[in-house]
Amino acid sequence: MSIGQFPHVRLRRNRHDRFTRRLVSENTLSTDNLIWPVFVTEGTNSVTDVASMPGVQRVSLDRLAAHVEPAANLDIPAIALFPITPTDLRDESGTEATNPDNLMCRAARLLKKEFPEIGLIGDVALDPYTSHGHDGLIEDDYVVNDPSVDILVTQAVNQAAAGIDIIAPSDMMDGRVRAIREALDATGLPNTRIMSYAAKYASAFYGPFRDALGSGGLLKGDKKTYQMDPANSDEALREVALDLQEGADMVMVKPGMPYLDVIQRVRQTFSVPTFAYQVSGEYAMLMAAIQNGWLDRERAIMESLMSFRRAGANGVLTYFAPEAARLLRA
Ligand code: PBG
């Protein structure tokens, strides 16, 4: 054997046994990293499937505790609540958003009482409440910024007063984080956290979510005048910088898998708590392939979640949260 015949460095050596693979593993995924989005609906004794999200359901409040209990038992740190507003309560200006006794606030009060340990995240935007499906108020066919922020502030304060621990503005209006922060402090809620949907893109991947909410059919036009252009990532850094200056405690990038590069840039640039939303369309995509037998269910789910950790995310909002927590425990 002549010198130089063998490679000195063989990266496969560390992959040879499970024990070295464990030792050299660079990232971890744990239940601590999971946030579960939950859809709530009016009525009683109601559990309905979301057609485009197999395995995901909308539940009425009397069924909510039973729905959330497994997640609480699995020690999932937080859930994110999304209300389905009955059509007759939706109007041009999203009035129901500011009702202190709306579905979201009632759900928050109920869950705070039943499961005081689990963190509650409240989405703040007008789209579940407007007859046009937009996240803000419309004047002359344009979603107007500052008047929308005024309503979002009331919505946020009501949610926090009802027991929401983390306000998550998903509306992409300018200046809303600062306005919400000031209002929370002025209302004696200085410990209510803000997780801003800082870099939220105008994405096709929200389709199944809009089906779940019943806002998809209502939506007039698109959200491109306020949500970000998928072509941009420098702009995502500006959005994040601004939200942090305005008082955001945590930031989010959304969608997730198509935007792993953005997650990585945000995390590396700011070193702040950074979250990713594996949105409804990503869930639908994976589930469609899984149900066809084209992907291995457990491996595809866990690999997709690990990719967020590798990109630098602290945690992931994912419809797979309970299943992932179960797999992590096994
Ligand atoms: C509301 C909101 C949306 C999602 C979360 N909050 C939809 C949208 O902006 O149209 C999407 C979540 C998902 O697709 O899973 N502003």
TrEMBL record:
Pathway where it operates: Porphyrin-containing compound metabolism; protoporphyrin-IX biosynthesis; coproporphyrinogen-III from 5-aminolevulinate: step 1/4
One GO term (biological process): protoporphyrinogen IX biosynthetic process
Protein species of origin: Komagataeibacter melaceti
Subunit note: Homooctamer.
Enzyme Commission number(s): 4.2.1.24
Active site positions, chain numbering: K200, K254
Enzyme class: lyase
SMART domains in alphabetical order: ALAD
Cited PANTHER family: DELTA-AMINOLEVULINIC ACID DEHYDRATASE
GO molecular function: porphobilinogen synthase activity; zinc ion binding
Keyword Endoplasmic reticulum: no
Protein name per UniProt: Delta-aminolevulinic acid dehydratase
Keywords recorded for this protein, A-Z: Heme biosynthesis, Lyase, Magnesium, Metal-binding, Porphyrin biosynthesis
Similarity field: Belongs to the ALAD family.
Record GO cellular component, one term: cytosol
Binding site for Mg(2+): E239
Catalytic activity: 2 5-aminolevulinate = porphobilinogen + 2 H2O + H(+)
